[in-house]
Amino acid sequence: MYQVTVNAEGKRCSAAVAFLNPILYRSNLTILTNIEVTQIVIQNHRAIGVLLQSGETIQVDREVIISAGAIASPKLLMQSGIGNAQDLKHHGIAAQCDLPGVGQNLQDHLMLMLPYQARQSMPIPEYLGEAGLFVNTGSDLVVDASDLQVHFTGNMQPLLGGQALGPVFFACPTLLKPESLGEIKLRSAQFDSPLAINPNYLNCDRDVDVLLQGIHLVRDLVHSDVMAPFLESELAPGLAADSQTLRSFIRSQASTIWHPSGTCKMGRDETTVVDSQLRVHGIDQLRIADASIMPRIISANLQATCMMIGEKAADLILHP
Hints:
The protein is of the alpha+beta class. It has two domains: 15-104 and 261-318, FAD/NAD(P)-binding domain, CATH 3.50.50.60; 110-183 and 196-256, Cholesterol Oxidase, domain 2 (2-Layer Sandwich). The protein has six helices and 16 strands. The protein has helices at residues 15-20, 69-79, 85-90, 205-222, 243-253, 303-318; strands at residues 37-42, 47-52, 57-59, 64-66, 82-83, 97-98, 110-111, 114-118, 131-135, 148-153, 168-175, 183-185, 196-198, 231-234, 255-256, 286-288. Strands 7, 8, 9, 10, 11, 14 and 15 form a seven-stranded antiparallel sheet that branches. A three-stranded antiparallel sheet has the order 1-2-3. Strands 4-16 form a two-stranded parallel sheet. A hairpin with a 4-residue loop joins β1 (37-42) and β2.
């Protein structure tokens, strides 16, 4: 059974509720909402502040810490002249630091939804995914961590697009360790211009192989004796589908569960963006603390790990 971030009253507990609300009274805390940062102000390879969309500059005495996520953090770096120098030059952005790894190494978890007709009515679950399974498929990936997760959820009719079919349940194999890597690039120097995001999903056949094993594993589970009172039939892709049909189904139906990561990865080689202290290479007084710093996406939902990245960043800042 999954742990979830809810309070004692059953309400969702966001990071703001957990970390900011208890300290709103502090005199050294200022929170600005509906404010968009368009650029990191850099002087002599040192971050000295941030530029707001309004044109106002907020200066810092110590550091700028970016925590905008795996999509917006690399965008902000590139808009500020930190990234692949050739790409920046193409958009007329002066390179402050040539870091080709900014926006590269994009990784995500892909989920495949397998709907099943149920024999009996089922309650609507309290959470979208209440229970799950982690497994190593034994593929040629040289890792000990799980490379497949299976989400289970009950009678979520809206996931079928509004089609009323009676009671249903879902078993959803999810790719945890993709070999396919994507990238994020600027389309222009204008901050409000949409990004060019290429997730490159399922470019590597091994990723399809893992999800195919996931389908077979799910079928073994739902056709077990303990599930017999619940299972009526598989709605999609259907037991008659051959291997090629299943592969086509995977490529057409797999979708993100919004776990982008890796686009400002931590490390020491020429493809990395931050060091082990989360400091951006080549720019003083600038750190990143979010999922973008993961060299490899983790074998789990990202939220708890992102909280721990924030905790670690706070410790590094307080105790350099």
